[in-house]
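Model: You mentioned two targets. I'll fold them one after the other.
Researcher: Yes, keep them separate.
Model: Target one:
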Amino acid sequence: MDSCVEEMLDSYLGEGLGGVRFVGICGMGGMGKTTLAHEIYRRISSNFEASSFIANVRDETKNRGQVSLQKELLSKILMEVEINIWNVCEGINVIRNTLCNKKVFIVLDDVDEEEHLEALAMKHDWFGPGSRIIVTSRNSNLLTTCGVDDIYTTKGLSYGDVLQLLCWRAFHKPHPKENFVNLSMDFVNYAKGLPLALKVLCASLFAKRTNEWKSALDKLKEELERKILYILQISFDGLTNTQKGLFLDIACFFKGDNKDCISDILESFGYYLDYNISVLIDKSLITIDGNGTLWMHELLQDMGQELVRRESPKEPGRRSRLWIYEDVIHVLKNNIGTEVVEGIMLNLSIQKVEHLSAEAFSKMKNLRLLKIGNEKSPKGLSYLSNELCVIEWHRYHLKCIPTNFQPNKLVELRMHCSGIKQLWIGIMNLNELKLIDLSDSQNLFEIPDFSGVPNLKQLILQGCTRLCKIHASLGNLKQLI
């Protein structure tokens, strides 16, 4: 924390400089934005003529209204109990006229709407020279739009910092007790650098025995702590339905994938990718690293997956996404999938799935994504939804795709290490298909008529050692790389 405070004071706030400066603190929920702002306020607020820390602006605006927050701001700065303001416009005028010659320090915590700043601290000329205004928010785009001078992005605590903080809270000393070393490490790994998670964890651990620590950790692994989930879910709840779907798909299926490699897939899901990805980034829900890889904090991923589980706590077949071993087996074995199911990721052992039937997919009319990673998975494609956009069926063991399989939206077909001899017979009308991966399918001997796949961009045949016949239509595919 000390290093973060020093960085803010030295590189962002420029306390010794003249002029008025607005600084944003941005990051995902629970990352310590408020804690950082509190510590800075504690250290330097006495250096100003007056100061005011307005906490929980988002919630307090809903609960009390903007006028009440305007009164609180002025009351703290002017040291007056009674502030007479009757509407927001009047409050803006009073703030501007009263504070324009005062050197003030103001913190506005948890701002998520532009109107919050419009009512409390919209422009530099509202405040006197040397004033500093800190705004914490989960939305970096909001801070940029409102014209803050600089934005500090909070980072997760280091492993050592997390361990030390845990020990101070749980043992009142900088190191774990002898019998608690491994348990302490487990909790540190679970927190993943998120200060909120550590705060919630530590609240119930002080002076507890090792068996109580183990019980608390087991509980957390089964169900995300409600306090953590509540904080993390605030940003999710502010998304549109399309953006929520994109976030859940990344949490359940696509975290760790390259954005460019899956852009066609996500576009086929109707996500308007460039815009909605930027919204998730602005709200600190996901990141994209320098290699283009989609990432999110592990606890945000846990939160997304928990929200899917809560769609139907007792019956997995009524959830939109299935990726957990036991849930997928349960649904396919008992043939209880429903129209709600949109995506399945199935990486199972041979022994567990020999008895499953393709009919298990018959009720999943809205299935968009199917990833199967085993040669003994259900036979055939005939029962699959016409809404499918992605099929990954590794070690598909039939000799040919059935002619009655004609999905309307298929974008990717991945069947590496399959037993296919001929991909299909005749012409398959798959106008949206852009990628076919048959790598290491060593029984493949013929490439069929591709007249029905005019938009194919990639055909991967690496390791297809028996391939000897290629249909002439392959030469007519103008987009093929």
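Model: Target two:
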Amino acid sequence: MNQGLVPLPGSNNESWCQGLDGLASRCAEYYKQGARFAKWRTVVSIPCGPSALAAKEAAWGLARYAAIAQDNGLVPIVEPEILLDGDHGIERTLEVAEKVWSEVFFYLAQNNVLFEGILLKPSMVTPGADHKEKASPEAIAKYTLTMLRRRVPPAVPGIMFLSGGQSEVEATLNLNAMNQSPNPWHVSFSYARALQNSVLKTWQGRPENVEAAQKALLVRAKANSLAQLGRYTGEGESDEAKKGMFQKGYTY
């Protein structure tokens, strides 16, 4: 639904997400075509501050989009991605995530968005990609669930995590760790790279590799299906699935 990231004047070299102009008519047209869900992604960079301006702009844009989408019969997927870039520790990520999500829900409420009619697509609370120490799945689950419990109302039905450059196995292990105890939401996944990377490398655009690529996709889908039930073990994963996919300044 959004129309891409552009520089945010007056910020610390940060971005804002454009696309509110004409959004209502686009939503109405997509609804006629059969769509029932919409997604809006904006980003927050910890090395850039983040500035109060950038956090507020991200939250306000997401809230206006969500209100417009609901007004046109669509379920808005709300996605403020806190980027992995940086050498900060997990405590700093928690601090920023809590700040961003408090702003997001403040403006969602101000725009009369129905919480029961949205889905969230957050990033997990992890150390920065360049931090000297890796965090265990148990630590990531602890910090991420702490943030969510402090900031996300139980009225929200589902939380579908993005992978954000983690390896396929890391993303699955972390999701599995979050489902080792009951949560007030359905905690699941909405991965791109962590669902598709090994599939694309297997396929390579060649017709003779289609069947093998389909099998690779089924492996990843089954792994993450088990993880959202808390039943994933990580056994039998390939070395390729364990490779990190972080790219500094990643955009799409």
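Researcher: Noted. Anything on target two?
Model: The beta strands are 5-7, 15-17, 37-44, 75-82, 119-120, 158-161, 186-189.
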